[in-house]
Amino acid sequence: MRKDTIKHQGKRLQLAKVVEDKGIKDEKVLDAIKKIPRHLFMDSSFEDHAYQDKAFPIAADQTISQPYTVAFQTEVLQVKKGDSVLEIGTGSGYQTAVLCELGARVYSIERQQELFKKTKLFLSKIGYRPRYLSFGDGYKGLPEYAPFDRIIVTAGAPFVPKPLLSQLKVGGRMVIPVGKDLQVMTLFERKSDTEFEKTEFGNFRFVPLLEDKN
């Protein structure tokens, strides 16, 4: 296992400062960025890029999201300790680790098998234990574990998958980047069985959320 050094920790403090300067206010989210060894989520040859505020390619044509984007989505979610959170797109597991740091019970789906296997092994190795990691189609969610307090989609969705909205608790929040080439970060708050309140934030760029490609 690669090391996490004082130097890495110093770089994380700087990264958290950059993210904070961009407008992130949630202390718990900033603390998670300060704590999680992001360099371990990336290939060792790219370690220099780990604490810059940018997305970076990882296995299976996926990316590890930009720290600011991770922080932004997490802040919008307003995760409380003990919340059940469904994450669509486990990817490198970095966002998963952030949610675990906040005390969430995380259920996560990844559709790339090689990435799923690698991340599952890796997360437990560095001490993050999501409740359930699943290999499958994120569009379908995880009905057997629903309803969820929070749902986070970490890939661009050309449309909002209905199954995900249906798996959200009343009072729950779902954050999802919606759009084809450029995504609008969108929050859905479930007000009742039939009512959702929608709030749109700025534009973000994500890798696409692909359906039924397994």
UniProtKB/TrEMBL annotation:
Gene3D superfamilies: Vaccinia Virus protein VP39. It is found in: Cytoplasm. It catalyses: [protein]-L-isoaspartate + S-adenosyl-L-methionine = [protein]-L-isoaspartate alpha-methyl ester + S-adenosyl-L-homocysteine. It is an enzyme of class 2 (transferase). Its EC number is 2.1.1.77. The lineage of its organism: Bacteria, Pseudomonadati, Bacteroidota, Flavobacteriia, Flavobacteriales. It comes from Salinimicrobium oceani. This is Protein-L-isoaspartate O-methyltransferase. InterPro entries: PCMT, SAM-dependent_MTases_sf. Keywords: Cytoplasm, Methyltransferase, S-adenosyl-L-methionine, Transferase. Catalyzes the methyl esterification of L-isoaspartyl residues in peptides and proteins that result from spontaneous decomposition of normal L-aspartyl and L-asparaginyl residues. It plays a role in the repair and/or degradation of damaged proteins.
